[in-house]
Amino acid sequence: MAPGGSVIFVKYASPNEIIAAGTVLPVLGIATVLLRFYVRNSRKQKMGVDDWLVLPAMFFVIGMGACMVAGVQKRVFGYNTPPPVGSSREELLTHINREIHIEQQIEFAFSLLMIQSYCWIKLSIVFFYRKLLVANKGMFSHFTWALIAIIIAWTVTFTFSIIFSCGTHFQAHWGSRLDLITYCPDGLKRQEGLYVTEFITNVLLIILPLPTVWSLHTTVKRKFAVTCILLLAFMAFAASIIRLVILLQVVTTPAAYAAKVDENQTITTILYWGMIEAGLALIACSLPMLKPLISEHGIQSAVNSVRSAISLHSITRSNGSTGSKGGSKASKASNNYSKLEPGAPDMAPLRGDRTAEGTSSAAQSSYHLDEPKPIVEAGKIRIQRDVDVTNSRA
User: Fold this and answer.
1) 252: helix, coil or strand?
2) Cβ(173)–Cβ(104) under 8 Å?
3) Were 281 and a residue from 220, 236, 353, 383 both cysteine, which residue would form a disulfide, CB within 3.0 to 4.6 Å?
């Protein structure tokens, strides 16, 4: 038995953990998406398909978080299954418990939002692969289009599968046990199919770019760096593994052992790990675009943006005040920046035989030796200007 009274291999998710997942992950997701668009806009880069696709994903993840919070507020997520009412078999089958009724409604909405969020996040990741690695119409390009088709087909299939799992008897989704047995006989099999196939698409997402990356004509260090960026979503992949194992454990549990499984707690824990997967995936798919914010030039650019907001009059007054107090002391400021020429693409695809070293000496000289040299499209020049300004009293 797992800690916390759970008979599955992980402990049941507590109300506090559910609230944390339903609030913190969407907030962090919103922050990373907004920063992603800020970086694109501040660097005058064109928005790509992968950028726009994270917007619907963000809203669906927010909806998932709202479901988690509502479930706890209604005391149906993170709490034990209410005891059955009545003693006869007929009463057990026909009675509709209020808490279970609400839990089933929230679970239904959560499942639909989850499918949509996974779809848009995965499509964004695949289009990012295409922008980063597709230089021509080779095999990798065909594989990415095939994966896009698979993701769309998976989304449409399981969206309708969940909606019509009880046929046209939609009320049966949150009805009595008799309703579920009568109208939704294969509901658990549909859930199993959903999570197993979702896991398979995760595996495809992880392994798809690796052969292309490691066939590039570049250094091992650079290949490893690109691989690490592409595998940032692995932390979300781990959550999908945990959720799948929980479901398979429930499905394959003997009847005598299954009687010890708390239905509400188990369902809540499965949804909890689904929330973690979606939240982490939304964050991870935007992290590669935020590198300029943590690089030296990215930080300097942010500082310069703040400085540019200050009026010239205020700066002049500040310099004058400093001069009267410090005599003839001089102040020195350095302003470093790098900028793409107008019309240059935001990111050129990685091509095995083209690196920053092969573009121009000017492009090489615009970066410090300890920084990775970005790939610049042929014919474009990246420029860095160092300006030293000295202010002193005459």
Assistant:
1) coil
2) yes
3) 236
Give this prediction's pTM: 0.73
Non-local CB neighbours of 41 within 8 Å, separated by 6+ positions: none
281 near 32, Cβ under 8 Å? Answer: no
Render 201-229 in DSSP notation, one character per residue: HHHHHHHTTHHHHHTSSS-HHHHHHHHHH
Task: Note down pLDDT in tens along the chain; length 394 residues.
Answer: 555 556 677 889 999 999 999 999 999 999 999 999 999 998 888 899 999 999 999 999 999 999 999 999 999 999 988 877 766 777 778 888 888 899 999 999 999 999 999 999 999 999 998 888 876 668 888 999 999 999 999 999 999 999 999 999 999 999 888 898 899 888 888 999 999 999 999 999 988 888 888 887 888 888 887 787 777 767 788 899 999 999 888 877 765 455 677 888 999 999 999 999 999 999 988 888 887 777 645 445 544 544 454 444 445 455 555 554 444 444 444 444 333 333 344 444 554 444 333 443 333 333 333 334 444 445 555 555 555 555 544 4
Which of 28, 31, 374, 365 has its CA nearest to residue 226?
374
Which residues lie across from 390 on neighbouring strands?
332
Report helix, strand or coil for 366.
Answer: coil
